[in-house]
Amino acid sequence: MSLLEAALRVRENAYVPYSQFKVGAAIRARSGAVYPGCNVENVAYPQGTCAEAGAIAAMIAGGDTEIVEVCVVADAPAPVPPCGGCRQKLREFAGPDAQITMATTDGQTLTMTMEQLLPGAFAPDHMSRA
Ligand code: THU
User: Fold this and answer.
1) Domain with 102 in it: what CATH number?
2) pLDDT-derived band of residue 1, with 50, 70 and 90 as boundaries?
3) How many domains does the chain have?
4) Which has the least CB within 10 A, 1, 39, 75, 130?
């Protein structure tokens, strides 16, 4: 299954009673394993979690820590980029060259690197002397 197919499939399970905006994400880890995640909203709105956060949690639970590629898909007029918080969350496990593909359910795609999405990021190597 492609990363896009995995993201499309998990998107169907998104829990979005407040926004009705279903998002699916899938991560390919260095091991080759694919980890899907979807957004999970909450009546206390800030407690909701993004699809990317779900995929990251699945990856860590699965024993992987290195992101090679990510796909995020939503039903939107243009490919939906990860929110600012998710860019930082992804950067924890994705190097500057990791590929982030944003897609729409009608087939548009846009691929950028992690560095293009979050230039000059505060990254784990900045704390290497801590
Ligand atoms: N959302 C994601 O899951 N990922 C993104 O990259 C953008 C936004 C979710 C959060 C919320 O459940 C809904 O989309 C509307 O903001």
Assistant:
1) 3.40.140.10
2) confident
3) 1
4) 130
